[in-house]
Amino acid sequence: xxxxxxxxxxxxxxxxxxxxxxxxxxxxxxxxxxxxxxxxxxxxxxxxxxxxxxxxxxxxxxxxxxxxxxxxxxxxxxxxxxxxxxxxxxxxxxxxxxxxxxxxxxxxxxxxxxxxxxxxxxxxxxxxxxxxxxxxxxxxxxxxxxxxxxxxxxxxxxxxxxxxxxxx
Length: 168
What we know:
This protein has six helices and eight strands; from the N terminus they run βαααβββββααβαβ. The protein has helices at residues 15-26, 28-31, 40-53, 103-106, 109-119, 139-153; strands at 3-7, 56-58, 68-74, 80-86, 88-90, 95-99, 125-130, 162-167.
């Protein structure tokens, strides 16, 4: 079952963000955990056609030309000095999607995803997709609690309009 929660919880999701949720829901039986033990790249490959149908650019491999580079810093003559990679980006560059599997929580990859999205030029929304179940633990719920604390504590202001957490 696909679960999702948008943060801050005082706002609903936009139609563009809902369309990304729909991509996961269309392939729920193929990607849901723990029934399927897929890597993040395998999940991304399954939902790729749906993301491309809603005008997302999707990483196609691990070589430099297959990755999606999002600018972070600009130098002389507007040349890109620093960029971060994303799994998928909306056509307008405002929504970044990161699909994680086992290391989402255990290696705190979700925190790196949040940091990098905050640094990316013109990015407004981050979508992080994680397994509902990883080695018997509920990664979705544990990351949900962390992000909820981040927003409720109000001690750290993120430059994003919101974060969507999807559990697959």
